[in-house]
Amino acid sequence: MAAADPATAASFSRLSFRRAVCPSPLQLPLSRTPPPGRLRVSSTVVALHKRNPKRLKYASERQFKRGDTGMLRVKVEPSGEDFWKLDPVIDLINRGAVGVIPTDTVYSIVCDLSNNESIERLRRVKGIGDSKPLSILCRSLRDIDTYTTGFPRGTNQGQANIFRAVKRVIPGPYTFILPATKQFPKQCIRHGSSTRYAKRRQVGVRIPDDPICQAILQNLDEPLICTSVKYLSEDEWILDPVIIADLYEPLGLDFIVDGGPRIADPSTVVDMTGTNPTIIRQGKGPKLEWMVAEDEEEEEQSTFSFKAA
């Protein structure tokens, strides 16, 4: 066999080194062979992702800078069967991007939980101040136990095992308010008076029952910070991803995952920090026997105070 030309060998060696150090950005963890009928859509998404290498650059502080091509839009089936299209979205989130994804209730603006700059950008995009608390989209109960004190497991003294009851309803359309631990970023909890649970270190946690949202969360190293998508001048949720894109792209949104229109039902918010799990906002999740409505909790406290007096 003839010896390889030295110049060719050196060129091949440099190419191999570059591939080893800088692998192709398209080799993402979710990648798999797409169905034949959807090859055209996949090529469109990848082409946009590939055309804009500057989009994936950010400073050493992990500050994401959107490129000139604008916001990335990825349309997926509500069933999540074509989750391979989410590859660029996973990469953008890891690099500090702020975007919109569907949940089992309404759409949410999300970003990486550990990226301080991204959290501040999320607040600017949504138009909310520091006193507005942010919630977490969690991958599992382990995440909830990491960033909050968790659900009561029950005691021999008769305390209810709320943990067991919660396990029956998640994933699901509930947001549970729990005391936050030191692992939860400080910039996500400000001392303010805009909401009833912003005065203390408390945070809302969710595990959505949505295949698209789950596919994104399960391919990230950490949960996502989130806030619901609303009209800028009205306290009303935006359910159409096309309208969301039109309104929020000029404000600096980096990507949107279009999973189809949602139904106008937010999550049911349950405050777990008091004596009883108390519903402070009734939403899509039904009231269960171990929950009490807010007016019932107030009535119970008034009765207790009267008896004590």
UniProtKB/TrEMBL annotation:
Positions of the YrdC-like domain: 83-285
Highest taxon of source: Eukaryota
A GO MF label: mRNA binding
PROSITE patterns: YRDC
InterPro entries assigned: DHBP_synth_RibB-like_a/b_dom (IPR017945), Sua5-like_dom (IPR006070), SUA5_domain (IPR052532)
Coiled-coil region: none
A Pfam family: Sua5_yciO_yrdC
Protein name, UniProt field: Threonylcarbamoyl-AMP synthase
